[in-house]
Design a protein that fits this description.
Length: 98
Amino acid sequence: MKTRVREYRKAAGMTQQQLADAVFVSSRTIISIEKGQYNPSLMLAYRMARVFGVSVEELCLLEENRRIEDGEPPAEPPVETGEPTAAVIEDEGKEARS
């Protein structure tokens, strides 16, 4: 399973041992999660997410992992065209009428 544990841990300035201590596991568990060799339990994922102030879905890339598991192609990021969205055009129209 892909996760963002390493990314969030480094952004928080934490060592693997510090994160392990904060969520009551060994540093070896954190290392294995970061390498994608171990899937954290729901409770461990929840504890890590709370440490980083994010959701379990965000930390564990649940949608991306579901797509992989289901054999679906990865979601494509939205393409920026430089054109305003419908919402922007609508808001500009309201301002012009005011």
